[in-house]
Design brief:
The complex is a heterodimer of chains A (262) and B (248). With 262 residues, chain A is mainly α. Chain A is built from ten helices and no strands. The chains are: A mainly alpha (262), B mainly alpha (248).
Chain lengths: 262, 248
Protein backbone atom coordinates (compact mmCIF):
# COMPACT_ATOMS: atom_id res chain seq x y z
CA UNK A 1 0.00 0.00 0.00
CA UNK A 2 2.73 2.45 0.85
CA UNK A 3 4.31 1.73 -2.49
CA UNK A 4 1.42 3.35 -4.32
CA UNK A 5 2.33 6.79 -3.04
CA UNK A 6 3.96 9.08 -5.51
CA UNK A 7 4.70 11.98 -3.22
CA UNK A 8 7.28 11.56 -0.57
CA UNK A 9 7.93 14.03 2.19
CA UNK A 10 10.73 13.41 4.59
CA UNK A 11 8.67 13.92 7.66
CA UNK A 12 5.55 12.05 6.79
CA UNK A 13 6.88 8.54 6.54
CA UNK A 14 4.12 8.03 4.05
CA UNK A 15 7.03 7.34 1.79
CA UNK A 16 8.04 4.17 0.14
CA UNK A 17 9.88 1.66 2.20
CA UNK A 18 13.06 2.52 0.33
CA UNK A 19 12.84 6.18 1.25
CA UNK A 20 12.09 5.45 4.82
CA UNK A 21 15.16 3.29 5.06
CA UNK A 22 17.13 6.19 3.62
CA UNK A 23 15.77 8.53 6.23
CA UNK A 24 17.00 6.22 8.96
CA UNK A 25 20.32 5.60 7.29
CA UNK A 26 21.33 9.24 7.01
CA UNK A 27 22.36 9.39 10.63
CA UNK A 28 25.34 7.22 9.90
CA UNK A 29 26.82 9.31 7.07
CA UNK A 30 30.21 11.04 7.50
CA UNK A 31 30.85 13.34 10.40
CA UNK A 32 30.34 16.72 8.74
CA UNK A 33 27.08 15.97 6.96
CA UNK A 34 25.93 14.00 9.97
CA UNK A 35 26.43 16.91 12.27
CA UNK A 36 24.51 19.26 10.01
CA UNK A 37 21.64 16.82 9.87
CA UNK A 38 21.66 16.35 13.61
CA UNK A 39 21.50 20.10 14.12
CA UNK A 40 18.67 20.26 11.62
CA UNK A 41 16.89 17.51 13.46
CA UNK A 42 17.25 19.22 16.81
CA UNK A 43 16.05 22.52 15.33
CA UNK A 44 12.90 20.83 14.07
CA UNK A 45 12.20 19.14 17.39
CA UNK A 46 12.86 22.40 19.20
CA UNK A 47 10.41 24.19 16.90
CA UNK A 48 7.67 21.75 17.94
CA UNK A 49 8.48 22.34 21.59
CA UNK A 50 8.63 26.13 21.16
CA UNK A 51 5.32 26.15 19.30
CA UNK A 52 3.63 24.13 22.05
CA UNK A 53 5.17 26.25 24.78
CA UNK A 54 4.07 29.47 23.08
CA UNK A 55 0.52 28.21 22.58
CA UNK A 56 0.45 27.09 26.18
CA UNK A 57 1.69 30.40 27.52
CA UNK A 58 -0.85 32.20 25.39
CA UNK A 59 -3.88 30.40 26.81
CA UNK A 60 -2.51 28.53 29.85
CA UNK A 61 -5.17 25.85 29.45
CA UNK A 62 -3.11 22.78 30.32
CA UNK A 63 -1.04 24.52 32.95
CA UNK A 64 -4.05 26.10 34.64
CA UNK A 65 -6.01 22.85 34.57
CA UNK A 66 -3.10 20.90 36.02
CA UNK A 67 -2.40 23.42 38.79
CA UNK A 68 -6.08 23.53 39.70
CA UNK A 69 -6.32 19.74 39.61
CA UNK A 70 -3.34 19.34 41.91
CA UNK A 71 -4.50 22.09 44.26
CA UNK A 72 -8.03 20.72 44.45
CA UNK A 73 -6.96 17.15 45.03
CA UNK A 74 -4.44 18.24 47.67
CA UNK A 75 -7.19 20.03 49.51
CA UNK A 76 -9.47 17.01 49.14
CA UNK A 77 -6.76 14.73 50.53
CA UNK A 78 -6.22 17.07 53.44
CA UNK A 79 -9.95 17.33 54.14
CA UNK A 80 -10.59 13.60 53.92
CA UNK A 81 -7.73 12.87 56.28
CA UNK A 82 -9.56 15.12 58.70
CA UNK A 83 -6.45 16.23 60.52
CA UNK A 84 -5.56 12.65 61.43
CA UNK A 85 -1.92 11.82 62.06
CA UNK A 86 -0.43 10.74 58.72
CA UNK A 87 2.44 8.29 58.49
CA UNK A 88 5.19 9.03 55.95
CA UNK A 89 4.19 5.89 54.00
CA UNK A 90 0.61 7.06 53.62
CA UNK A 91 1.76 10.54 52.66
CA UNK A 92 4.09 9.08 49.99
CA UNK A 93 1.30 6.94 48.54
CA UNK A 94 -1.14 9.88 48.47
CA UNK A 95 1.42 12.19 46.87
CA UNK A 96 2.08 9.77 44.02
CA UNK A 97 -1.58 9.05 43.48
CA UNK A 98 -2.21 12.78 43.07
CA UNK A 99 0.73 13.11 40.65
CA UNK A 100 -0.30 10.07 38.59
CA UNK A 101 -3.94 11.10 38.31
CA UNK A 102 -3.06 14.69 37.47
CA UNK A 103 -0.73 13.62 34.68
CA UNK A 104 -3.18 11.06 33.30
CA UNK A 105 -5.87 13.72 33.15
CA UNK A 106 -3.78 16.62 31.92
CA UNK A 107 -1.07 15.27 29.68
CA UNK A 108 -3.28 13.82 26.98
CA UNK A 109 -3.69 17.30 25.52
CA UNK A 110 -0.50 17.49 23.47
CA UNK A 111 -1.65 15.30 20.61
CA UNK A 112 -5.40 15.58 21.10
CA UNK A 113 -5.15 19.35 20.68
CA UNK A 114 -3.37 18.92 17.33
CA UNK A 115 -6.13 16.60 16.22
CA UNK A 116 -8.83 19.06 17.36
CA UNK A 117 -7.22 22.03 15.64
CA UNK A 118 -6.71 19.92 12.54
CA UNK A 119 -3.00 20.68 12.48
CA UNK A 120 -1.81 17.07 12.54
CA UNK A 121 -1.43 16.98 8.78
CA UNK A 122 0.78 20.07 8.80
CA UNK A 123 3.10 18.53 11.34
CA UNK A 124 3.16 15.33 9.35
CA UNK A 125 4.17 17.25 6.24
CA UNK A 126 6.75 19.50 7.83
CA UNK A 127 8.70 17.19 10.10
CA UNK A 128 9.85 13.66 10.62
CA UNK A 129 7.83 11.64 13.15
CA UNK A 130 10.74 11.37 15.56
CA UNK A 131 11.14 15.16 15.63
CA UNK A 132 7.48 15.64 16.50
CA UNK A 133 7.73 13.05 19.24
CA UNK A 134 10.90 14.59 20.65
CA UNK A 135 9.32 18.06 20.78
CA UNK A 136 6.16 16.80 22.42
CA UNK A 137 8.14 14.65 24.83
CA UNK A 138 10.21 17.61 26.02
CA UNK A 139 7.07 19.72 26.42
CA UNK A 140 5.29 17.02 28.37
CA UNK A 141 8.37 16.38 30.51
CA UNK A 142 8.60 20.06 31.42
CA UNK A 143 4.90 20.14 32.27
CA UNK A 144 5.06 16.97 34.39
CA UNK A 145 8.16 18.04 36.29
CA UNK A 146 6.57 21.39 37.09
CA UNK A 147 3.35 19.70 38.16
CA UNK A 148 5.02 17.13 40.39
CA UNK A 149 7.27 19.73 42.03
CA UNK A 150 4.14 21.79 42.67
CA UNK A 151 2.41 18.76 44.15
CA UNK A 152 5.47 18.00 46.27
CA UNK A 153 5.56 21.55 47.61
CA UNK A 154 1.84 21.37 48.34
CA UNK A 155 2.32 18.15 50.27
CA UNK A 156 5.16 19.62 52.30
CA UNK A 157 2.84 22.48 53.14
CA UNK A 158 -0.32 20.55 54.00
CA UNK A 159 1.01 17.23 55.31
CA UNK A 160 4.31 18.06 56.95
CA UNK A 161 5.51 14.53 57.68
CA UNK A 162 9.08 13.86 58.70
CA UNK A 163 11.54 14.41 55.85
CA UNK A 164 15.07 13.21 56.54
CA UNK A 165 16.63 13.63 53.12
CA UNK A 166 14.97 16.47 51.14
CA UNK A 167 17.32 16.05 48.16
CA UNK A 168 16.12 12.47 47.58
CA UNK A 169 12.48 13.57 47.92
CA UNK A 170 12.82 16.13 45.13
CA UNK A 171 15.03 13.88 42.99
CA UNK A 172 12.42 11.10 43.17
CA UNK A 173 9.74 13.57 42.12
CA UNK A 174 11.75 14.76 39.12
CA UNK A 175 12.74 11.26 37.96
CA UNK A 176 9.26 9.89 38.47
CA UNK A 177 7.80 12.80 36.53
CA UNK A 178 10.20 12.19 33.64
CA UNK A 179 9.24 8.51 33.52
CA UNK A 180 5.53 9.36 33.68
CA UNK A 181 5.87 11.84 30.82
CA UNK A 182 7.64 9.20 28.71
CA UNK A 183 4.70 6.84 29.20
CA UNK A 184 1.96 9.41 28.67
CA UNK A 185 3.38 11.08 25.56
CA UNK A 186 3.30 8.02 23.30
CA UNK A 187 -0.05 6.91 24.72
CA UNK A 188 -1.58 10.35 24.19
CA UNK A 189 -0.50 10.05 20.56
CA UNK A 190 -2.34 6.73 20.47
CA UNK A 191 -5.55 8.08 21.99
CA UNK A 192 -5.52 11.16 19.79
CA UNK A 193 -6.19 8.76 16.92
CA UNK A 194 -9.06 7.03 18.71
CA UNK A 195 -12.58 8.38 19.07
CA UNK A 196 -13.31 8.62 22.78
CA UNK A 197 -10.04 10.32 23.59
CA UNK A 198 -11.00 11.82 26.95
CA UNK A 199 -11.50 8.92 29.36
CA UNK A 200 -9.20 6.61 27.42
CA UNK A 201 -5.80 7.89 28.57
CA UNK A 202 -6.14 6.89 32.24
CA UNK A 203 -7.33 3.43 31.21
CA UNK A 204 -4.34 2.91 28.95
CA UNK A 205 -1.70 4.58 31.04
CA UNK A 206 -2.29 3.24 34.56
CA UNK A 207 -1.08 -0.33 33.97
CA UNK A 208 2.02 1.03 32.25
CA UNK A 209 2.70 3.32 35.22
CA UNK A 210 2.85 0.51 37.80
CA UNK A 211 6.63 -0.04 37.42
CA UNK A 212 7.12 3.71 37.95
CA UNK A 213 4.81 4.04 40.90
CA UNK A 214 6.35 1.29 43.04
CA UNK A 215 9.99 2.52 43.10
CA UNK A 216 8.81 6.14 43.26
CA UNK A 217 6.74 5.54 46.37
CA UNK A 218 9.59 3.51 47.87
CA UNK A 219 12.00 6.40 47.25
CA UNK A 220 9.68 8.97 48.79
CA UNK A 221 9.28 6.79 51.88
CA UNK A 222 13.03 6.33 52.06
CA UNK A 223 13.50 10.11 51.90
CA UNK A 224 11.17 10.44 54.87
CA UNK A 225 12.76 7.83 57.10
CA UNK A 226 16.30 8.57 55.88
CA UNK A 227 18.38 5.75 57.38
CA UNK A 228 22.14 6.23 57.63
CA UNK A 229 22.96 4.77 54.19
CA UNK A 230 19.94 6.34 52.48
CA UNK A 231 21.61 6.87 49.09
CA UNK A 232 22.98 3.34 48.94
CA UNK A 233 19.52 1.98 49.66
CA UNK A 234 17.92 4.30 47.15
CA UNK A 235 20.29 3.19 44.40
CA UNK A 236 18.33 0.25 43.03
CA UNK A 237 15.05 2.16 42.92
CA UNK A 238 16.75 5.09 41.20
CA UNK A 239 18.32 2.77 38.63
CA UNK A 240 14.95 1.14 38.07
CA UNK A 241 13.22 4.48 37.46
CA UNK A 242 15.87 5.68 35.05
CA UNK A 243 15.99 2.34 33.22
CA UNK A 244 12.23 2.21 32.81
CA UNK A 245 12.07 5.81 31.61
CA UNK A 246 14.83 5.04 29.11
CA UNK A 247 13.08 1.90 27.91
CA UNK A 248 9.78 3.74 27.44
CA UNK A 249 11.47 6.61 25.62
CA UNK A 250 13.37 4.42 23.18
CA UNK A 251 10.32 2.22 22.62
CA UNK A 252 8.28 5.38 21.95
CA UNK A 253 10.67 6.41 19.19
CA UNK A 254 10.47 2.94 17.63
CA UNK A 255 6.68 2.71 17.80
CA UNK A 256 5.70 6.34 17.16
CA UNK A 257 6.19 5.96 13.42
CA UNK A 258 3.33 3.48 13.33
CA UNK A 259 1.03 5.75 15.32
CA UNK A 260 1.80 8.90 13.39
CA UNK A 261 1.62 7.49 9.89
CA UNK A 262 -1.84 7.01 8.48
CA UNK B 1 -2.84 -2.68 7.34
CA UNK B 2 -2.85 -4.30 3.95
CA UNK B 3 -5.87 -6.07 2.70
CA UNK B 4 -4.54 -9.57 2.35
CA UNK B 5 -6.21 -12.69 1.12
CA UNK B 6 -6.52 -14.11 4.65
CA UNK B 7 -5.31 -17.59 3.92
CA UNK B 8 -4.80 -19.86 6.88
CA UNK B 9 -2.63 -22.94 7.03
CA UNK B 10 -4.69 -26.01 6.18
CA UNK B 11 -4.29 -28.91 8.55
CA UNK B 12 -7.27 -30.79 7.13
CA UNK B 13 -8.42 -33.79 9.12
CA UNK B 14 -5.33 -33.57 11.31
CA UNK B 15 -6.95 -30.56 12.98
CA UNK B 16 -10.08 -32.54 13.75
CA UNK B 17 -8.03 -35.40 15.17
CA UNK B 18 -6.18 -32.88 17.30
CA UNK B 19 -9.48 -31.50 18.58
CA UNK B 20 -10.67 -34.96 19.61
CA UNK B 21 -7.34 -35.86 21.25
CA UNK B 22 -7.33 -32.55 23.10
CA UNK B 23 -10.91 -33.00 24.33
CA UNK B 24 -10.24 -36.52 25.61
CA UNK B 25 -6.92 -35.46 27.14
CA UNK B 26 -8.41 -32.51 29.04
CA UNK B 27 -11.36 -34.62 30.22
CA UNK B 28 -9.03 -37.30 31.56
CA UNK B 29 -6.87 -34.66 33.23
CA UNK B 30 -9.88 -33.04 34.90
CA UNK B 31 -11.18 -36.38 36.15
CA UNK B 32 -7.75 -37.48 37.37
CA UNK B 33 -7.21 -34.09 38.93
CA UNK B 34 -10.34 -34.39 41.01
CA UNK B 35 -10.31 -38.14 41.71
CA UNK B 36 -6.64 -38.99 41.49
CA UNK B 37 -4.06 -39.56 44.21
CA UNK B 38 -2.94 -36.58 46.22
CA UNK B 39 -0.23 -36.20 48.84
CA UNK B 40 -2.06 -34.83 51.86
CA UNK B 41 0.38 -32.32 53.25
CA UNK B 42 -0.46 -30.53 56.53
CA UNK B 43 -1.82 -27.23 55.29
CA UNK B 44 -2.57 -28.13 51.70
CA UNK B 45 -4.57 -31.34 52.17
CA UNK B 46 -6.90 -31.78 49.20
CA UNK B 47 -6.49 -28.23 47.96
CA UNK B 48 -3.23 -29.36 46.38
CA UNK B 49 -5.43 -30.52 43.50
CA UNK B 50 -5.77 -26.89 42.49
CA UNK B 51 -2.18 -27.18 41.26
CA UNK B 52 -3.54 -28.95 38.18
CA UNK B 53 -5.91 -26.13 37.29
CA UNK B 54 -4.34 -22.97 38.63
CA UNK B 55 -0.77 -23.28 37.40
CA UNK B 56 -1.50 -24.35 33.78
CA UNK B 57 -3.77 -21.28 33.45
CA UNK B 58 -0.75 -19.18 34.28
CA UNK B 59 1.19 -20.91 31.48
CA UNK B 60 -1.65 -20.25 29.02
CA UNK B 61 -1.83 -16.62 30.13
CA UNK B 62 1.83 -15.98 29.38
CA UNK B 63 1.99 -18.06 26.21
CA UNK B 64 -1.00 -16.13 24.92
CA UNK B 65 0.47 -12.76 25.87
CA UNK B 66 3.75 -13.61 24.16
CA UNK B 67 1.92 -14.81 21.04
CA UNK B 68 -0.13 -11.59 21.08
CA UNK B 69 2.98 -9.44 21.33
CA UNK B 70 4.67 -11.43 18.56
CA UNK B 71 1.75 -10.98 16.17
CA UNK B 72 1.48 -7.30 17.10
CA UNK B 73 5.11 -6.87 16.10
CA UNK B 74 4.49 -8.83 12.88
CA UNK B 75 1.50 -6.60 12.14
CA UNK B 76 3.59 -3.45 12.44
CA UNK B 77 6.33 -5.00 10.31
CA UNK B 78 4.18 -6.45 7.54
CA UNK B 79 0.82 -4.74 7.84
CA UNK B 80 -1.07 -7.97 7.10
CA UNK B 81 -4.59 -8.16 8.48
CA UNK B 82 -4.20 -11.79 9.58
CA UNK B 83 -1.70 -10.73 12.25
CA UNK B 84 -4.25 -8.35 13.71
CA UNK B 85 -6.78 -11.17 13.96
CA UNK B 86 -4.19 -13.51 15.47
CA UNK B 87 -2.99 -10.93 18.00
CA UNK B 88 -6.52 -10.17 19.15
CA UNK B 89 -7.42 -13.86 19.47
CA UNK B 90 -4.24 -14.63 21.39
CA UNK B 91 -4.96 -11.79 23.82
CA UNK B 92 -8.51 -12.97 24.26
CA UNK B 93 -7.40 -16.51 25.16
CA UNK B 94 -4.68 -15.08 27.40
CA UNK B 95 -7.13 -12.84 29.25
CA UNK B 96 -9.61 -15.68 29.74
CA UNK B 97 -6.88 -17.86 31.22
CA UNK B 98 -5.71 -14.94 33.36
CA UNK B 99 -9.18 -14.44 34.77
CA UNK B 100 -9.41 -18.12 35.67
CA UNK B 101 -5.88 -18.07 37.10
CA UNK B 102 -6.57 -15.12 39.37
CA UNK B 103 -9.92 -16.51 40.56
CA UNK B 104 -8.53 -19.99 41.29
CA UNK B 105 -5.54 -18.36 42.97
CA UNK B 106 -7.63 -16.11 45.20
CA UNK B 107 -9.96 -18.92 46.22
CA UNK B 108 -7.03 -21.28 46.82
CA UNK B 109 -5.14 -18.90 49.07
CA UNK B 110 -8.27 -17.78 50.93
CA UNK B 111 -9.29 -21.31 51.95
CA UNK B 112 -5.82 -22.77 52.45
CA UNK B 113 -3.31 -20.35 53.88
CA UNK B 114 -5.72 -17.66 55.03
CA UNK B 115 -8.46 -19.90 56.33
CA UNK B 116 -10.27 -18.31 59.25
CA UNK B 117 -9.18 -14.83 58.21
CA UNK B 118 -10.84 -12.32 55.97
CA UNK B 119 -7.98 -12.00 53.50
CA UNK B 120 -9.04 -12.49 49.90
CA UNK B 121 -6.48 -10.23 48.30
CA UNK B 122 -3.15 -11.10 49.84
CA UNK B 123 -0.93 -8.88 47.67
CA UNK B 124 1.16 -11.73 46.35
CA UNK B 125 3.53 -10.46 43.61
CA UNK B 126 2.23 -12.94 41.03
CA UNK B 127 -1.32 -11.99 41.93
CA UNK B 128 -0.54 -8.30 41.44
CA UNK B 129 1.26 -9.10 38.22
CA UNK B 130 -1.68 -11.01 36.80
CA UNK B 131 -3.96 -8.19 37.92
CA UNK B 132 -1.81 -5.69 36.02
CA UNK B 133 -1.76 -8.01 33.04
CA UNK B 134 -5.56 -8.18 33.16
CA UNK B 135 -5.74 -4.37 33.35
CA UNK B 136 -3.51 -4.19 30.29
CA UNK B 137 -5.69 -6.68 28.45
CA UNK B 138 -8.82 -4.77 29.41
CA UNK B 139 -7.25 -1.52 28.19
CA UNK B 140 -6.25 -3.27 24.95
CA UNK B 141 -9.83 -4.26 24.23
CA UNK B 142 -11.20 -0.85 25.28
CA UNK B 143 -8.75 0.74 22.85
CA UNK B 144 -9.82 -1.62 20.10
CA UNK B 145 -13.45 -0.78 20.78
CA UNK B 146 -12.86 2.94 20.46
CA UNK B 147 -11.31 2.96 16.99
CA UNK B 148 -13.59 2.48 14.00
CA UNK B 149 -11.19 2.28 11.10
CA UNK B 150 -9.91 -1.33 11.06
CA UNK B 151 -6.44 -0.46 9.74
CA UNK B 152 -5.94 2.13 12.41
CA UNK B 153 -7.40 -0.12 15.07
CA UNK B 154 -4.90 -2.84 14.25
CA UNK B 155 -1.91 -0.52 14.33
CA UNK B 156 -2.83 1.38 17.48
CA UNK B 157 -3.66 -1.72 19.47
CA UNK B 158 -0.43 -3.37 18.29
CA UNK B 159 1.54 -0.35 19.50
CA UNK B 160 -0.19 -0.51 22.86
CA UNK B 161 0.33 -4.26 23.16
CA UNK B 162 4.06 -3.90 22.54
CA UNK B 163 4.40 -0.98 24.94
CA UNK B 164 2.52 -2.87 27.64
CA UNK B 165 4.57 -6.02 27.11
CA UNK B 166 7.67 -4.00 27.93
CA UNK B 167 6.38 -3.51 31.48
CA UNK B 168 6.37 -7.24 32.21
CA UNK B 169 10.09 -7.81 32.87
CA UNK B 170 10.08 -4.77 35.14
CA UNK B 171 7.13 -6.07 37.08
CA UNK B 172 8.74 -9.48 37.53
CA UNK B 173 11.81 -7.74 38.88
CA UNK B 174 10.18 -5.00 40.95
CA UNK B 175 7.20 -6.61 42.62
CA UNK B 176 8.87 -9.52 44.44
CA UNK B 177 11.09 -7.09 46.30
CA UNK B 178 8.09 -5.40 47.85
CA UNK B 179 5.64 -8.15 48.64
CA UNK B 180 5.76 -11.58 50.24
CA UNK B 181 4.83 -14.55 48.12
CA UNK B 182 3.13 -17.89 48.54
CA UNK B 183 4.44 -18.96 45.17
CA UNK B 184 7.28 -21.37 44.56
CA UNK B 185 10.73 -19.89 44.32
CA UNK B 186 10.01 -17.03 46.72
CA UNK B 187 11.07 -16.64 50.35
CA UNK B 188 12.19 -20.23 50.80
CA UNK B 189 9.06 -21.66 49.25
CA UNK B 190 10.20 -24.61 47.21
CA UNK B 191 10.46 -24.18 43.45
CA UNK B 192 9.22 -26.77 41.01
CA UNK B 193 12.05 -29.18 41.58
CA UNK B 194 12.33 -32.94 41.88
CA UNK B 195 11.42 -33.05 45.53
CA UNK B 196 8.30 -31.14 46.19
CA UNK B 197 5.68 -32.56 43.88
CA UNK B 198 4.91 -36.16 44.72
CA UNK B 199 5.62 -38.37 41.74
CA UNK B 200 1.97 -39.38 41.20
CA UNK B 201 0.94 -35.76 41.23
CA UNK B 202 3.80 -34.69 39.03
CA UNK B 203 2.60 -36.70 36.05
CA UNK B 204 -0.94 -35.40 36.36
CA UNK B 205 0.44 -31.88 36.67
CA UNK B 206 2.58 -32.23 33.54
CA UNK B 207 -0.29 -33.65 31.52
CA UNK B 208 -2.59 -30.90 32.84
CA UNK B 209 -0.09 -28.28 31.67
CA UNK B 210 0.13 -29.90 28.22
CA UNK B 211 -3.64 -30.37 28.08
CA UNK B 212 -4.54 -26.80 28.95
CA UNK B 213 -1.91 -25.43 26.57
CA UNK B 214 -3.51 -27.57 23.84
CA UNK B 215 -6.93 -26.30 24.85
CA UNK B 216 -5.65 -22.73 24.71
CA UNK B 217 -4.16 -23.25 21.27
CA UNK B 218 -7.34 -24.91 20.03
CA UNK B 219 -9.53 -22.05 21.31
CA UNK B 220 -7.15 -19.59 19.68
CA UNK B 221 -7.29 -21.31 16.30
CA UNK B 222 -11.07 -21.62 16.52
CA UNK B 223 -11.37 -17.93 17.15
CA UNK B 224 -8.95 -17.05 14.34
CA UNK B 225 -10.83 -19.26 11.92
CA UNK B 226 -14.21 -17.81 12.82
CA UNK B 227 -13.00 -14.21 12.49
CA UNK B 228 -11.35 -15.00 9.16
CA UNK B 229 -14.56 -16.62 7.93
CA UNK B 230 -16.50 -13.55 9.04
CA UNK B 231 -14.16 -11.17 7.23
CA UNK B 232 -14.30 -13.27 4.06
CA UNK B 233 -18.09 -13.31 4.18
CA UNK B 234 -18.11 -9.53 4.53
CA UNK B 235 -15.96 -9.26 1.44
CA UNK B 236 -18.32 -11.46 -0.53
CA UNK B 237 -21.26 -9.20 0.29
CA UNK B 238 -19.62 -5.88 -0.51
CA UNK B 239 -17.89 -6.06 -3.85
CA UNK B 240 -16.20 -2.72 -3.57
CA UNK B 241 -12.60 -2.95 -4.69
CA UNK B 242 -9.92 -2.68 -2.06
CA UNK B 243 -8.77 0.88 -1.47
CA UNK B 244 -5.39 1.31 -3.14
CA UNK B 245 -4.16 4.25 -1.12
CA UNK B 246 -5.76 5.30 2.09
CA UNK B 247 -6.22 9.02 2.61
CA UNK B 248 -7.23 10.19 6.01
Amino acid sequence: MWESRTLCFWGTSACTRRFRMLSFADYSVPAFAGRLMTLDWIAGAWAVFAKDARLELRTRVALGALVMFVAASLLLVWLSLGGAETSPSTAAALLWIVVVFASAVGLGRVFVAEEERGTTLLLQLALRPAQVLAGKLVFNAALTVALSLFAGAGFRLLLPVRLGEPALFWLALVLGALAISAATTILSAVIARAQAAGPLLPVLVFPVLVPILLPAVALTELASFAPADVWAEAQSSLVLLVAYAGLLTSLSFVLFDHVWRD
Amino acid sequence: MQRDDLTLPRFGSLYRVFGVVMAVWVTVVVVLGIMGPVSRLPILEHTARNLYFHVPMWFVLYTGAIAGAWHSARLLATGREIHDIRAESAWLVSMTAGTIAIITGIVWSRFTWYVGTDIWWNGDPRQVMVAVQLLIGGAYFVLRGSVDDPRRRGRLSAVYALLATATMPFLTYVLPRQYKSLHPGAEGNPAFSEMDIASDMRWIFYSAAVGFLMLGWWLYTQRVRSVVAERRAERLTDNTPAPTAALS
